[in-house]
Design a protein that fits this description.
Number of helices: 8
Order of helices and strands: EHEEEHHHHHHH
Radius of gyration: 16 Å
CATH class of the largest domain: Mainly Alpha
Structural class: alpha+beta
Shape: globular
CATH topology of the largest domain: Glutathione S-transferase Yfyf (Class Pi), Chain A, domain 2
Distance between the termini: 26 Å
Bound molecules: glutathione
Number of domains: 2
Strand content: 5-15%
Helix content: 40-55%
Length: 206
């Protein structure tokens, strides 16, 4: 039996972030195919992912990634110093807030038909995505990864969303017009954890 169980499906960006964390830490995990709604009663919101470690259960992907980081050996997913760690939290929060609200919930999910959305709403979200991606691109001009020279949890949360960009014409164009994000994506794409967790098929929760 694997050390931890992650409940979710491969295309789910939040599930992928937790799988990336397990891989980066070298933790043996089992992905238990679970769709939204099936994590209740542990998660009253019914969302994925959820994690089990022995009889300990946890939901909310940032909490899961933090738990994996603190519990297991392997490279730290947060810098050890207070400022580096806070900057990692800052970028993780920007991903889970602004990038999720604009590119993921505003463009990718409706274009994949996961949630309803009008073309007008998608165009508004695309404009907002441009601003957010521009902020990442500017930052990555001076930093190899989001919180400095090493991969951190912040990068692991951006991968699942940014790696959907090529699936949507306008986001593909936006990614291609963001050279520093492109360089970051090539660096991240070369990592075994990113290759091993590629959803292979598209459409977030399918
Ligand atoms: N804040 C949650 C978000 C999880 C989330 O939204 N998961 C999606 C799948 S990627 C989901 O379960 N959606 C179904 C729903 O919102 O009811 C986390 O970080 O784990």
């Amino acid at each position: 039996m694997a050390t931890i169980q992650i409940y979710g499906v491969p295309p789910s960006p939040f599930t992928r972030a937790t799988r990336l964390a397990a891989r980066e830490k070298g933790v043996d995990y089992e992905l238990v195919p679970t769709r939204p709604g099936e994590t209740a009663p542990v998660n009253p919101l019914g969302k994925i992912p959820m994690m089990k470690h022995g009889d300990f259960t946890l939901y909310e992907s940032p909490a899961i990634v933090r738990y994996i980081d603190r519990t297991f050996d392997g490279p730290p997913l947060w810098p050890r110093d207070a400022k580096g760690s806070a900057l990692c939290d800052q970028w993780l929060s920007v991903v889970c807030d602004s990038m999720v609200q604009t590119a993921l919930a505003g463009v990718i999910a409706p274009r994949f038909g996961i949630i309803p959305g009008t073309e007008e709403g998608i165009q508004v979200a695309l404009k907002r995505s441009e601003r957010v991606v521009g902020i990442f691109d500017k930052h990555l001009a001076d930093h190899r990864f989001l919180a400095g020279e090493q991969v951190t949890a912040a990068d692991l949360f951006l991968v699942p969303i940014f790696f959907y960009f090529p699936e949507i014409a306008e986001l593909k164009a936006l990614g291609e017009a963001s050279p520093n994000c492109g360089r970051w994506a090539r660096d991240m794409g070369a990592r075994p954890s990113v290759k091993a967790t590629d959803p292979q098929f598209r459409g977030l929760n399918r």
